[in-house]
Amino acid sequence: MENVAATQSAFQRLKSSCVPLLANSLLTPTSIPAVSKLLSDLHNTLAQLQASGYAFAPATISYVFFPLSSLLRRNDLPSIPDRILEKILNILALLSEPWWWDMDVVAWEQVFMICSAILGGIDRKGKGKERDEETKVAAANCLWSLLHERIPTEDPSSPANRDRARAIFDTFRKHAQTAKFLPVLGQTLNALMVTAESPHLPLQRISLQVLSTMMKDYLPDAFVPSVLPGTISSMSKVALGAGSQRGWANGDIVAAALLVMQYAIIRAVGDDTCVREGVVRSVDHLEDLLGSGSTGSEPSGVQSRSPYSTQRTESWLKGTASQLHIALNALSPLVRHQTPTALIGLATFAASILSATTLTVPQSQSLLLSFLLSLQASPFERVSAQADTSLRQILTSSSSSRHHILQVLLQISRDNLAALPRLLLSHADSKVEHVATMLAAVCRLATPRRGPPLPAISAISSGVGKLLGPHGGVEKWGWSLLSTLEFTNPPVIVTQTSAAQLFLENNPSTAHVVPFPELTFRHVSSQSARQALEEMFRALGTTAGEESLFTIEWFVDVGQSGRGRRAVAALWCACRLLEGAGRVSFDPSSSPTSVINRGRRLEKVARDIARRIAETWDTWEDEELPQDAEPTSSTDENTLIEHVQGLVTIRGVPGTEQTAPSSHPHSAVQPILHRALSLQLLAITAGILESRFLPLLLHVLYPVLHGIVSDTSIVSASALAALNFITTSTSYATPANLLLSNFDYALDSVSRRLTRRWLDVDATKVLAVLVRLVGRDVVQKAGDVVEECFDRLDEYHGYEVIVDGLVEVLGEVVKAIEEDEDNRLPRESRTTFRGPPVVDDAHWLDSFMEWFRHRHDKVEAESEPEPTRDASYPREAWGKKDEDTVDGDDAPAPKSGRARPGEDPFEEAPPTPTQTLTTQIVSRSVYFLTHGSPTVRARILLLLARSVPVLPESALLPSIHHAWPFILNRLADAETFVVSAAAALVAALTEHVGDFMARRVWDDVWPRFRELLKRLDRADASSALSRRSGGGGVGVGTESAYTHSHRLYRAIITTMTAAVRGVQPQDAATWELVVLFRRFLHAQAHEELQACARELYGALCENNEDAVWLGLAATLGWVGGSVAFLAEPKWDIEGNVKMFLKC
Asked: Where do Polar residues bias regions lie (predicted)?
């Protein structure tokens, strides 16, 4: 009852549209709008019923189809408007989905022919314009409803009958392949190929969809070869976007066009079809070799053939395969398509054609394999997985063709590797990248794929292992590769301090983010091609494994034989191959998730390489020009054509004097690159050996640290990256922990290079950077460092460079000690002047009036007996009070009045080992204050300044007192940085031991500073670097903050600020300071000097604000009288004065 009710309801809904539609079946200009509305209502009703799951009965379908057929019969097809015909076709397409199960062949044929006529324009041929794209889309949709195959579960009547769908489909297909219907099928195919090239995307998509099902299921086997050329031509244009203004097609269009080509090629020249018709023979078993040749040599002539068919013969296959190869080669640009849909379609197309045409189209196998190999390296994960899966399935299938395809794959690898040198010299970056990408893709097939389990191709790993093994001929192909794989010298930036050292000084904790610097190829300019080359060599090493060690050792031997271009290229190749063989990666994001098992042979080679690099590190500077840098003969058998840029050299007239040939723009010897790559090789060996690399640190630490102190940025950056990678590989948290744990190794390597037999002037720099890297923890090992430094100072005190380096090391040790807060003494000078308390102006006389009122009051007896004396000294012997109050049960206290140890507040504690070490450094360093090198003098002064916060007075002051005359002489040194260092020492002393410096500052230092200020003022008046005021006169100071006078001004002002705060100034000296430093408050002075001057006057205000106010107010002209001569209208100091004075 429910089905009857649903049928009645559907009938009533359809009746409201079908009956009026039948009444208006004859179209007139007045009835067209009403018919259009009725067709729209009918389409909506059918769509709603289909969406609700209503099962259309044959009677219902016939009821709906009758008014539609009446419209088509009663009206001439060309006269039906496009929008009416479009709606009719849309209703037929919707109706054909349930009708297909019960449709008779006649109705199917009639609907098919109507759609074909509309698509091909037959209905309006010679009678006006063609149908619009929307009408053709509706016709194509109707064709799709008629042609596509159904599955048994879609059967509305009996889903359990699984053969019904296949039987109906076979009925329609057999009818389409009859000789009577074949012309209609061919005309429809031609029309669809035309519409497939339409710029209207919906029409293009549905046309390709219908084409694919027609090509796959409906065309007869003998008819497909006839349409193959046209199909390939049309679909190639569609896939390549030849008719598009953009020059490329959408991804789904490309995939659909390739699918049509795939069905056409497989059905026309597929192995199965050609073997069945006797065009080719398949030999899978021994019986096939013994079979008679006449069974399939000639096709049977008794079978009746259609006049539209093409007979497959050997000559036809040969010509077709040749033309097909040209067409497939034209699809090469699709490899670089920007959408993954197109790339997946290309991978599917190439894999299907490759596996189905092994016997018929052998010349295209290398091309199709290159498509798949290129797509395997695609950045899209889906594309790469699809191509990789297809390759592995083809190479591991049970078909005998897999052996032939594998041989083709290996031949592709050999050809590409042989062509690489020629491509490098031709500067063809895209071709180099393509070749390297394919070689890497071949190597990836040798390893099992993660994710979906797919087996590895063992034949590839054995082939690559043979290539890189002892019998691979690396002595032959290696030299041709090294001759073209050249690197350009980086811009050499020589600095006194390396880039790595500056980086460590700024933020040593972030050293782990430093990567290895990138090297630039001479013949490769794009970064993608360079990365492809690197990945290719890594993949070769990974695939060959330990079999590649022979080639790696050969490259290392070539690299260690000289410092030329070939040696550098050999080291680069060795790095990349060893990186792959050891599965080592410099990328921190690609850390292995599982333990990597490495063989003993690989680890032994890694140890040998690390030792060889360490042993030859110090010998390269003494070597002569390497042999590979010598000019080669023009008759060399390996001479290659080279792409040269620049001017062409014109030879002079014979008999005239010949000019010397210009030097080659690329140096033959490249020691900088050689050292950078040697450091990379050391890092790789550490990654292979991991914790077993620790014993090699005895040999390796010095080369790495020596590279850090290099004057060239690329070597220092490489060394810092190598140190970080070694730290990570050996499971240390930071480089400092690594160096501290192996400090004895590093110190021993430096000591061995500071002997008379082996003297390296850079050894002191290495020791300094070692101390800097370790940081404050170096204090534990500082005794050995200091002892080593002073031993070498005694031995080489006449060598300025060595003395400078050793003093720098001592300075680093003291700096590390000073940076540790535990080593700083919490002392405060007992006589440091703090100045009178600041009193508000409104309460100046309050204290006086309070005293005046109580001046005659009697002092109580309980008051302190000695009010005029302060409490800065004891009233009785220290410890006496404690002795008198000792508990009687305790042991009797000693009767002596001598203080017990530790109870004297002024008694210093015993020196710590750090203080003892610093005392030793200071006491033995003061003698170098008179050294002939100004750098040494400045380093000693800075060393003394850093030791002031660390040492107790009993250890510091005797050395300072002894060296005081020399320190004063340094204030008059000829070098500005020495004077600045001496001023810094004075500032540190006044800050920490002000009572010791009270007389020395004002009697010794200030007079020298005063004279120096006057000399600098006179010099600035005639200097071209002086600042100019607004009126054109000379300003204050210089324009730059890097001139000698600016640095001296800053050092003097900073020192006097510390003196004012740490030492009680005399009134006369205070007045001199107020007067002499006024000009630095000028608004036209340098901003840094203004800030320092404000700091100085702020300190003076804390001691004597009246004097500061009087001097500055007189300068501004606010006060006259006896101080009117201080007025300076040319100085604009009012803004700075208001910052620290209440004016």
From this structure: 295-309
Residue with tokens 């559907």: 10
Are the CB atoms for 112 and 175 separated by under 8 Å?
no
Rounded to a whole number of angstroms, the distance between the first and last alpha carbons of the chain is: 107
> Would you call 453 helix, strand, or coil by DSSP?
coil
Q: How many CB atoms lie within 10 A of CB 1090?
A: 21
Residue 482 structure tokens: 């090294």
Q: Which of 10-24, 289-303, 447-461 has the highest mean pLDDT?
A: 10-24
Tokens of 171: 């009925």
Q: Is the dihedral of CA 980, 981, 982, 985 positive or negative?
A: positive
**C-beta separation of 153 from 220 below 8 A:** no
Domain boundaries in the chain?
1-101, 103-125+134-155+162-210
Least Cα distance to 468 among 581, 380, 547 occurs for 547
Token pair 């600020």 is at which residue?
A: 1057
- Report DSSP letters for 90-114, one per residue: HHHHHHHHHHTTT--HHHHHHHHHH
Distance between CA atoms of residues 205 and 210, nearest Å:
9
Report the candidate in 681, 675, 556, 677 with the shortest Cα–Cα distance to residue 618.
675
Paired tokens of 872: 């800065």
Question: For position 660, what pLDDT does the model report?
Answer: 40
Tokens standing for 297?
Answer: 């040599």
Please spell the DSSP secondary structure of 684-733, one letter per residue: HHHHHHGGGGGGGHHHHHHHHHHHHT-SSHHHHHHHHHHHHHHHHHTT-S
Q: What is the pLDDT of residues 350-364, one digit of tens each?
A: 999 999 998 899 999
Hey, what are 131's tokens? 């149908």
**For 204-254, what is each residue's pLDDT tens digit?**
999 999 999 999 999 998 899 999 999 999 999 999 988 777 778 899 999
Alpha-carbon gap, residue 1099 to 1094, rounded angstroms: 9
Q: CB count, 10 Å around CB of 79?
A: 12
> Is residue 132 left, alpha or beta, with left meaning phi > 0 and alpha meaning psi from -120 to 50?
beta
CB atoms within 10 A of CB 404: 14
The SS3 of residue 885 is: coil
Mean pLDDT within 651-677: 60
Give the whole-angstrom CA distance, residue 392 versus residue 398.
12
How far, in Å, CA of 955 to CA of 851, rounded? Answer: 47
Is residue 46 within 8 Å of 95, Cβ to Cβ? Answer: yes
Q: What single-letter amino acid sits at 671?
A: P
Contact 357, 265 (CB under 8 A): yes
CA 883/CA 895 separation, integer angstroms: 8
- What is the C-alpha separation between 534 and 579, in angstroms, rounded? 10
| Mean pLDDT score of the chain | 81
User: How far apart (Å, rounded) are the C-alpha atoms in residues 196 and 912?
Assistant: 91
Output the six-digit token pair for 351. 């894999």
How far apart, in whole angstroms, are the C-alpha atoms of residue 524 and residue 572?
Answer: 15
Each residue's pLDDT tens digit, 95-129: 998 899 889 999 999 999 999 999 888 766 555 56
Predicted confidence band of residue 298 (pLDDT cuts 50, 70, 90): very low
Token pair listed for 535: 């990945």
- CA–CA separation, 790 vs 248, rounded Å? 76
CA pair distance 457, 469, nearest whole angstrom: 19
Cα atoms in the Cβ-side hemisphere of radius 13 Å centred on 580: 30
For the stretch 44-59, pLDDT in tens is 999 998 888 888 888 8
Give SS3 for 925: helix
Question: What pLDDT shows up at residue 851?
Answer: 77
Among candidates 269, 288, 287, 289, which has minimal Cα distance to 279? 269
Identify the DSSP state of 312. -
Residue 445 · residue 520 · CB < 8 Å: no
1090-1118 mean pLDDT: 86
Mean pLDDT calculated for residue range 878-895: 48
Q: Is the pLDDT assigned to residue 556 strictly greater than 70?
A: yes
The pTM score is: 0.74
